[in-house]
Here is the input.
Amino acid sequence: MFRTLVALTLLAAPAHASDAASDAAAENAAPAPASAAQPATVEAARVTPVELRVPVSGSLVARSPALIYPQLAGTEVTELLVEPGDRVTRGQVLARLSQSAVKAQLAQAEAEAQRSEAAVRQASNQIDSAEATFAQALAALKRTRQLQQGGSATRAALDDVIAAEAAARAQAASARDGLAVAEAARAQAEAAVDLARLNLDWTEVTSPVDGVVSARDAQLGVMGSASGDPMFTIISDGSIEWQAEVVETALKGLKLGDPAIATVAGLGEVEGRVRRLPAAVDPATRLGELRITLDASDGLRPGLFASGWVIIDRHEGLTVPLTAVLDDAGGQVVQVVADGTVETRTVAAGVIWQGRREILSGLKAGEQVITRAGAFFRDGDHVVTVTAPDAGAEAGADRDQPPPGGAARAEVAP
Here is the structure.
């Protein structure tokens, strides 16, 4: 029994000695080293071009459409000379109407004009004859009065001469009135001739402007009419513009002459300028209508859809990569690195342009900001800076512009 107890005591002694040695080593060990500084991708804030754009969309329309109606109604279309897409000049014949009835009317009017001209000549001859008769009667009256005073003519003879003179005077006056009536009839006949000739001219439908035919509703055999659809629609000077709609909240910043970029379906980008601002806003859609004059470009046609931007401001501004701007409870912040130490700084952020965010205040040009994973760093953290190879490319040349104050996205660094 005694020998067993001695053996157990000898076996337990090394274990207690080992625990004591471990405790002593732990007490004499050096403190654990501090955490190593983390790498952070940074870029210097710099001044770059900034644009403020307003999104707009709408269709292309003719700036000055000319609607061509026939001047002569009720006449059959006999010939069509142009097609949609043809370029025409002022005075060019577009279509012809039937001339048979109009030519007959002209011939009738000309005949009536000739008859009225003969009537005028006849009335003139009657005036000459009546005035000669009147002059003869007046001379006879003078002689008879002299004879009557000398006692050679009776009172009855004098009365006959006086009556003859009065009749000749009235006949001369009637002849002059007849000439006036004949001349009025001649003027009316000449006006009828002019109208018939005008109707004959109207049988040729001509273009009032230089431009491009955009539509043709006329058909052969159809009676021309001044009501209903026009025979032709012509784009005056071929000028196409953009009828674009813009939201009412963006109207304040727009002004005449602002540059615009339209992305036209099937054609790509076409530049232009604002020609007319909205006169009113649709109460249902809350949109206003802009008119934007587009640069001349092949393929522009009324009805094509276009979307794009109106550039309301261009300036140089202090910018940082879009990912460098973070949102917190107090607004926008950036993580500034100076001498390897992180400083969380509140800034006033502006517009977004091509993957960069404008900084209106709170930051100076040349200061280094963390461009990636800024949300994982805290004020006072120590970092090892890594310069971004191309912050603009990494952020992406995105042309979309969320309004100032929009949320920025933080990417986690690998």
